[in-house]
What does this fold into?
Amino acid sequence: MAESPVRSVDKALTVLQLLGERGPDGLSLVDIAQALGSPKSGAHLTLSALRHRGFVTQDRESGRYRLGGETLRVAASYEEKLSFRTSLLPLIRRLSEEIRQVCHVGILDGADIIYLEKVDADRSVTVGSKIGGRNPAASTALGRAVLACREWDSAALRAQLGGTKAGPLPGLGWAHLRDALEQARARGYALDLEENEPGIACVAVPVLLNGVPCCAISISTLAGETGPATLAGYVERLHALAAQYLVPPLQLPSRPARARRH
It folds into this structure.
């Protein structure tokens, strides 16, 4: 393995690995210092920093070190967020089967959307996405659905998406994106009408985990055979199926009052 560019961070991570492998028995300061190849004073400094943030704890009687509650909390949080992928798959399979369109689950990662799941339609609707692939969040309904869950000032949106003064992507201006996000908040769903892929229209709804947006579900179809009413109908069906398939802490946001009247 190549030498770490930041040795102090590497030592801290090595300590976490050692304590994780050791389990509840923990390790003494001498054990850890020997494993790190460091003097006891240096190992103690690393352990003190980890204890300060709760990633390591020390038994008062034996003096041995173990993984702290913060390490377990971070691992549990990560596992919880990954589990929604499995939970949503039956929902999008049923949705795709009923409406005969391509359905995705995607998460926001920086300026991109990553596709976690994709269910193809049982007819000829070809969409260029693939599981594990990325597309710009600014141009996709999936990305817009997640972004629309909060209000953004200009600096924060630019920090999230990058881009230039003109816009997040070539041909996509900031004003257009802001309008798209505002409309998504008002409707309860986001649209991408051939902005990410020629010939393909998408509609997407965010998914909440413990009340916080964790991902979005999208429906992709041929733009030439789809109108606004059809896309809105897909959203209606998604909400109906979500009521059957999703259990807390996963849920779709409540639909805006204006959207429920239509």
